[in-house]
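Note to self: keep these together.
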Amino acid sequence: MNDAITFTETAPIFRIFDEAVAKAFYLDFLGFKLDWEHRFEEGLPLYAQVSRAGMSIHLSGHHGDGSPGASAFVTMSNIKAFQQELIEKQNPNMRPGIEELDWGLVMEVIDPFNNRIKFCELLAS
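Structure:
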């Protein structure tokens, strides 16, 4: 085993089909910021990164970059505060609840393209 190997970031790639809808969900609703956007040329699909509090997600309009309905499991702290922030935005399509499971508190959000993020505040063991 090589002790020099480290992983510094994980960024799931979520497929999107409408840039404006994706930005409204990730930036306005979830509170992420747009880090960068890339297109190979004008008129081609968007590839972008959004992030918040140490979490990054890549959003792609390119065929083959992820499948709609993908899932990501994200550990975090202060899940109840995050849930309250989302509820206060009064999004008619997304009012996530928190489920208490054996391993932690879990809140699932589903983006407009059926990609799912399961936010989890792990319980102390």
